[in-house]
Amino acid sequence: MTRRVGVQTEVLLGLVLVMGLATLVLTAVFVAHQEAGLRAILGRSLLAEARSPRTLTDSLFPGTAWWTVASDGRVQPRGPGGGVIDHRTRELAGRALARAEPLLMPGSVWDSIRFAAPLDGSGAVVAGRLPRRTSVRLRAVPLAVVAANVLVFTAFGAYLLRRRIVLPLQRLSAAAQEIAGGALATRVPVEGAREVAEVGRSFNEMTDALEGRTGALEKAVVELRAANRDLGRARAGLDRAERLAAVGRLAAGVAHEVGNPIGAILAFLDLASRDSGISDATRDHLERAGREGGRVRTILRQLLDFSRPPRPTPTSVDLATLAEETIALVSAQRRYEGICFGVHREGAQPPVRADSSAVMQILLNLVLNAAEAVAGAPEPRVMLRVRPAALQIRMGDVAEGALERRTPDGVECVVADNGCGIPEADRERVFDPFFTSKPPGEGTGLGLSNAVRLAEELDGQLELVPPPEGARTALALRLPTAGEWDDP
Fold first, then answer.
1. What spatial distance separates the first Cα and last Cα of the chain, rounded to whole Å?
2. Residue 413: pLDDT above 90?
């Protein structure tokens, strides 16, 4: 990345360059004017002092050395500070004698000022050399004024430039970096020169537009995710409905083709078992065949119920009461004596409008599955928790948040157990028809699929949920409250 010079440095460099050129021109003009003034004013003063008959002990400029140079080149000091004449003063005296007029040599700032003037009628020349400090004092003041002018002008320009242009631009740059970091609420003050203020105003307007579009984009993303989630659920529902339709057609065909022969076989087995001439072993075999045929008839009846389900007749029922009745039915069986069953009511549950027999069938299926899952657990437990729930959830919302903001529109019964759990690979298939994790001959795989169908017919939901602490599996049955239904 190329490192660029800042606007303040660039403008100040340009300003110093312009000021330097202007100062050089001003200094040249000033020095030329000063030289003319020195020649005019200082020259007259020194000429009057040189032609004075005094011994120059009280010179106008203390420390000035004076000499008298004769026409034959002899030099004689005038006054106590004369000493040996230098060659430049001697040359100036020769030129003054040759031209017969006074001459002044200002020299440089750090050099001495020299003066020579011919004496009237004597053919001699009076030459003088001022001390160097006098030359510095006479010329340093104008140069100091010029330097102070440059310094003051540059400092004021830098202050004005920084306050009116550089600082607003730096704030604008810092705000842009904050916005790049995600702080879209950052704004800059509209200050500085008119052009800089316009840039700040345009920047704030751009940030407002960016914040609005970003908010709209985030909302669109949330809605799109919710729509994709709903689409996935709808697709899963369509797939399940297609599978259920196929199962229904299969069940109808099986019932039609197998039902009558099975009934005839069971009738003949019953007649054969009534024969008093058969042995006990044969009678036992016939009874076993009858029991197996009865199992086949039960499976056929389940298939018929699955393909032609009865229409539920919803009424206002208490879901917690139905849960307690279900637990009472299951816990009374001897095979489930060692299992701890329980029903917990949380909060005030409004009544639900549902078919009590259908709800009992769903809960009974869930509780029986849970009771079989905890077989062999050290402390087998099956717990039912009944509490208010939210069925209708706004897009992008969660059930807990919706339940806190408004009156619950449903009641849920969570059936949890501490059994073997459901493998992750099977969680998407537990509601599929004929899917079962039980050994062959111990289950048909129609229980949960039939329970899901009944829950949907009641405008409810049945789904796997995260198990509570201490449990391995949890399923939740949610049903709408009685106020959410229209009277039939």
1. 76
2. yes
